[in-house]
Specification:
By secondary structure, the protein is of the alpha+beta class. It has 2 domains: about 30-90 and about 130-190, Yope Regulator, Chain: A, CATH 3.30.1460; about 90-130. It has 8 helices and 6 strands; from the N terminus they run ααβββαβααβαβαα. It has helices at about 1-20, 25-30, 60-75, 95-105, 110-130, 145-160, 170-180, 205-210, and strands at about 30-35, 40, 45-50, 80-85, 135-140, 165-170. Strands 1, 2, 3, 4, 5 and 6 form a 6-stranded antiparallel β-sheet that branches. β1 (about 30-35) and β2 (about 40) form a beta hairpin. α4 packs antiparallel against α5 (about 110-130). The longest helix is centred in the N-terminal third of the chain and has 21 residues, at about 1-20.
Length: about 210
């Protein structure tokens, strides 16, 4: 009997292992593909808008209240819209923290000198990249027809713009760069191919014509 139980369990375990191995990165993060106007996910299509931040430190109290009122108007006009705030470029805080810890425990003076140079280099890069925040307004699309999606994309952008915000709908390159920064993959996400390894695949014209 114990042997029989073991044999019954093995197929179930192999099925679970195959299921885990079969999951792709796209499935894991919930992204399916790029669409004509945005990004298709497992929970529907997303329209993404990049809104330039406002430096409220230079605004008067009255103007800040006006900005808040304008944001409230956007939220009341598009109640389902989502807002996210991210770094506008790659952040090196974790890297610098790691180097500082290494510096504290390192005894070799030559290695310490190299670690200090690495920290200084990252500081300079971070200053040059100006790691300001960026704000994304995300609208979920329920419509499936191309004309309806197009109308909604324009409507959302118009509503945000009419309230005094500097906004533009994100194209494929912008979305790729945002995803690369969000998942800490690269600071040049817009240069990434749509399909992994696509840049290394070359089709011979002679072979293509024969097919």
């Amino acid at each position: 009997m114990p042997k029989m139980d073991k044999q019954l369990k093995q197929p179930e375990q192999s099925k679970r292992q195959k299921k885990r191995k079969g999951r792709s990165v796209q499935e894991f993060i919930g992204v399916k593909t790029f669409t004509k106007y945005g990004l298709m996910t497992q929970k529907g299509e997303l329209l993404l808008y990049l809104v330039s931040p406002t430096n409220i430190s230079v605004l008067s109290h009255v103007n800040i209240e006006i900005k808040i009122r304008h944001l409230m108007m956007v939220l009341s006009s598009i109640p389902d819209i989502e807002i996210t705030c991210t770094d506008s470029s790659e952040c090196f805080d974790d890297n610098k923290e790691y180097l500082r810890k290494r510096l504290d425990c390192e005894q070799n003076p030559k290695v310490r000198k190299l670690l200090k140079k690495d920290i200084e280099f990252l500081d300079n890069v971070q200053v040059e990249m100006a790691t300001a925040r960026q704000f994304l307004f995300v609208a979920r699309v329920k419509a499936s027809k191309d004309k309806q999606v197009f109308d909604m994309a324009n409507r959302v952008e118009k509503i945000i713009s009419e309230q005094g915000f500097e906004v533009r709908r994100m194209r494929k390159g912008d979305i790729k760069r945002f995803l690369a920064l969000y998942f800490e993959a690269s600071m040049n996400g817009e240069q990434m191919p749509d399909v992994d390894g696509e840049q290394f695949f070359e089709v011979d014209e002679d072979e293509e014509s024969e097919e």
